[in-house]
From TrEMBL:
Name of protein: Fumarylacetoacetase-like C-terminal domain-containing protein
Binding site for substrate: 381-384, 403
Keywords: Magnesium, Metal-binding
Domain Fumarylacetoacetase-like C-terminal: 18-218
Keyword flag Cytoplasm: no
InterPro entries: Fumarylacetoacetase-like_C, Fumarylacetoacetase_C_sf, RraA/RraA-like, RraA/RraA-like_sf
Pfam families: FAA_hydrolase, RraA-like
Coiled-coil features, chain-numbered ranges: none
Binding site for Mg(2+): 404
Keyword Protein biosynthesis set for record: no
Cofactors that this protein relies on: Mg(2+)
Low complexity: bias regions: 243-264
Amino acid sequence: MNDIADPRFAVLGERPGKIVAVHLAYASRADQRGRRPAAPSYFFKPSSSLAPSGVEIERPAGTELLAFEGEIALVIGEPARWVTPDAAWSHVASLTAANDFGLYDLRANDKGSNVRTKGGDGYTPLGPALLDARDVDPADLRLRTWVDGDLVQDDSTAGLIFPLAQIVADLSQHFTLETGDVILTGTPAGSSVVTPGQVVEVQVDAGPLSTGKLRTTVAQGDRPFDPAIGSLPAVDDTQRTEAWGSAAAAAAAGTGDATDAGRSAADEPVPADSPVPLTAAAPSLSPELRDKLSRVPVAALSGQLRKRGLNDVTIDGVHPLTPGSRFVGTARTLRFVPHREDLFALHGGGQNAQKRAFDAVEEGEVIVIEARGETGSGTLGDILAIRAHARKAAAIVTDGGVRDAEAVAAVGIPVFTAGPHPAVLGRRHVPWETDVAVGCGGTTVEPGDILVGDGDGVIVIPPALADEVADAALAQEQEDAWIARQVASGRPLEGLFPMNAAWRARFDGERNA
């Protein structure tokens, strides 16, 4: 079949030499993601991913996070190399509606390339009609997307961080844009996950001119990926948040509707240079184990961990904001890096890592914040504490400061902190990432670690040791209470603390009576 007869390329008239896509281009999308790029960045998509309007695309078996992105596609006319922004638009022949589908289940191991995430067959629908670039104002194009008839994206090129001409000029600095090449110019806020049976429509309007609606139906595939050939799909809370568009949307959706969602991210090795944080496996904290740990003082747990060679498991320098606070829970981590103005401008606003962590925390989890012991700024305030309390988090632990300390204390959630401070986050910190190993109060905390806190401080228990340590600590507490009663009755410490054989025999006899 020649290219002209191939229906995938019908709207273009021929197979394009390359498809280049922009990562983040709209302010609304950047604000939603909590990061605004200083310059455009790109990735390639294969021409085999093109599809016309009116076709089905498959969500592969074992996946759950197929997301749409309504976009404007530019088609290059005259080749462009080293063109200026002023001249760039004259090298665009036409534009049309596009849908940049992506499978977020594959995103982590793509490590930014999007080769598998966005390269699937049919993952770049274009059409149905081309608009002549000479007839439109590139700064006044309207982009809309509907899912099952509901409008979910509505923005214009006035909301671009990088004007269309700048994108063309920038790409021409790096390689020749050839006749027929396609540029996908990014998506605004509103992109989200679609499931089999749903219909997505995208339309671009330039005043009275319109591309018409580009229509794509999602179908369920029946062929899973082969683990003997390559890595399997893997999802975590970070990917769900990014795919659905927000932590709230991801939470409302649950864990997806795939009948076989593949392995969790923890089942795959985490590449050392992976740009996407993966949530570590978090063994469940059973009600029985939680109950046992709730009856054991931190000091007793510390003693049992020390007997097992674990000395560096206390989060030092933190104290309960409210005296008498106590908690048991599993770690949900948040990392701050030292403040830098340009990085805070990119990562500090919108749905940043700090807000994502508080939106994603689950019942019984402890938000553990790495603030490097820097107390010259708050790492949370009353609004975030209220959010964590509403999510039924077990506690918040930070080796940094707490702002609005009295209001935070009044919320009712246990908060352990290095102290109060009135300054806002941007004075000392940049919210950076979630669900990674962090250093808090001089010890490492991994997602899923078990934490216990009381007036003596906070201790970190490796999940694999938790049952053993809890049972041993309860037994030791029983023994210590018995010794305390003997001392209180006037017995001398010698031979009793610690117990010699005679006292041990007496203790065992009374305990077993």
